[in-house]
Amino acid sequence: xxxxxxxxxxxxxxxxxxxxxxxxxxxxxxxxxxxxxxxxxxxxxxxxxxxxxxxxxxxxxxxxxxxxxxxxxxxxxxxxxxxxxxxxxxxxxxxxxxxxxxxxxxxxxxxxxxxxxxxxxxxxxxxxxxxxxxxxxxxxxxxxxxxxxxxxxxxxxxxxxxxxxxxxxxxxxxxxxxxxxxxxxxxxxxxxxxxxxxxxxxxxxxxxxxxxxxxxxxxxxxxxxxxxxxxxxxxxxxxxxxxxxxxxxxxxxxxxxxxxxxxxxxxxxxxxxxxxxxxxxxxxxxxxxxxxxxxxxxxxxxxxxxxxxxxxxxxxxxxxxxxx
Length: 324
What we know:
The protein is of the alpha/beta class. The chain has 2 domains: 11-25 and 33-54, no CATH class; 61-311, 2-enoyl-CoA Hydratase, Chain A, domain 1. It is built from 14 helices and 8 strands. The chain has helices at 11-24, 31-53, 57-64, 72-79, 121-127, 134-150, 167-171, 174-185, 202-206, 227-234, 241-248, 252-257, 276-294, 299-311, and strands spanning 82-86, 98-105, 108-115, 154-160, 192-201, 213-217, 221-223, 263-265. α9 links the parallel β5 and β6 (213-217). The chain starts with 10 loop residues before the first helix and ends in a 13-residue tail after the last helix. 40% of the residues are buried. The model has no long low-confidence stretch (mean pLDDT 91).
């Protein structure tokens, strides 16, 4: 049966997979049919590996936004053994675009913070498609400060096109609250691990993205602006989004080579949307490993390391003036 959501470049894969499923559904296949099925499985694996090894930046954006891609609630269920949600910012309201709470990761207690996009229309409207308001960033910061007081490591999962751009959000101090988070996260005296699981858009992502270990899933992106937003500014049309995606250098490979992230976490063959359980198991292992590496560090070393990590971003060299 064909998948409900198919990206254009995935259609040949699903067509071959559907033909294979029809053959496998036959009862008592002949030796010749078994050999055909074996060859088709090999071909499907090779084709999938080749397609995903050569995705262009715009195709990676499409994968990061795939409707079937695992989201924060999926990882809460599959990665953490326990989760108790914490609500509200003690000031304005409870922003559903950011979910926070106590969680248990393997044998350790942690504070969890993550963006939430929603699966159906009702959930997406409640969560504003993962675009948080000021109260969401206040809620996140309050819970992270609580974690620091009790010595709990912090896990942040990032998946947002950007902070909510509405008038109300600006009136309530959207930029100010994100800036406060950048400042205060840099001083928390506990390990912080941040992972971009889908979209990492602008200050909306960075508002919960100041960590000691920053990772990105293989087919996620992390950028100062969405490709559509960049295309609208530079070329006055979102139709140029593929060109903008290439220019922004925001794929996992680019981010690692530029030193923006510390690690690229591999996804299952064909992307995380193909196998939620395998992706969750891989992510859990990398989170545990990251915390094991960070927890032995003295607090002063942890804070200095975190500070220098973000100070190094965007460094460049200048040549002297060119003689005419």
